[in-house]
Amino acid sequence: MEPRPLLELNVQQAIASILQKDRWWIKWQDQNIREKWLSEVEQQLLLKTFEQSLADWSHGREPIYALRPLLEEPTGPEKQEKLRRWLKDVVTDLKKGGDEDEDEEENDDEDTKVATKKRKTEGAAEELENKRLLALEEEVESQASYPAVKWTFNQLLLHERLKTIPVEEWTDETTTSAVDAARSVNDPSLAPRATEFVLAVRRGVSSKEALPISPGSGILSEDRLLKLKMHCEKIHDELDAVQRYIAKYLELVAKREKMTIDTDLAKGVICPAGIDGVWVSDNIISEELATKFKNGVAELENVPDDEKDWHPHSNNQVLDLVHPSLFCCVFGKTLQVPTALDPSSYNTPMEQMHRLMFTGSEVVERPYGCKTDYQWIPTDFFVGKDGEPGSDGEIG
Question: What is the pLDDT of residue 331?
């Protein structure tokens, strides 16, 4: 199976969250409910995507690493001033090499001022501004917006935490917690904060007002704020496209399955789940069959508490009734049928299972190089004439 883009998998999971709602095809027609569901999907999509962004990211740590040498300098006013300057400049932009140079940015601003002064006419100043905006747009267009926004919040969180500690008290011990969290980019509050920021800007709040920074702090330049707004707009465009896709998909499902207000709820409806290749249904199994299944399972469940086989590390939440490891292959003892069995040659699955379990005649020998005595029972696979693979039995 080919790898699927994270966006596709996240959207698929979002669709599944709606398909699993009771009588969704009827409620979907209500404008208020539809907007509520799409809003929920939007928030979950943002949260999940931000959580997945910058996983195992190894670049851009230079500003964080620069703190250690500063902490090792002799105590004094000069060291304290360096630490204050480091804290002010720590909210760096996200770049592959992590070589953001704030001084260079300031020099660019200064060059812009000089160039503007040289151009006395209003038209020249406007042209210069247009070029600046175009350069920012091109830079934002070349970057992935979710990582860029998350990285900004990662650095803002580092600044926020260290700001509460006077620089005179900065040591490895007092800064380690905040610095380690920033280095790993895995603080649990990052995704919710970034999500709320993007949604706030989507509601019309300015990027400056939506950020958790004090007015006039100077932590982020006007260009950085503008780039953040542009990143949000890119994400908003993606969210709009996702909403249109989800709406179209749901309409196609309802049309294909002929779902109306008169649709019989007892009729089996199967829909794709949030996991790729998995389908779900709440009513495809009849009540009669479900009752038989529950009664059969009850016999396996009806054992003394001290004999129940709780799955390891499940905190007694998952009870193993029939686990493959309990009925595994034992090399040198387990018998197997000499040839693969054609499933179509049996009238019922029970007949096939009986043949597998009780007509084996060949001992399973330990494969060359294998060092274990046990193995989950495998199955043979075949490739049909159409090129599609299939299995002759159940693994385990």
Answer: 92
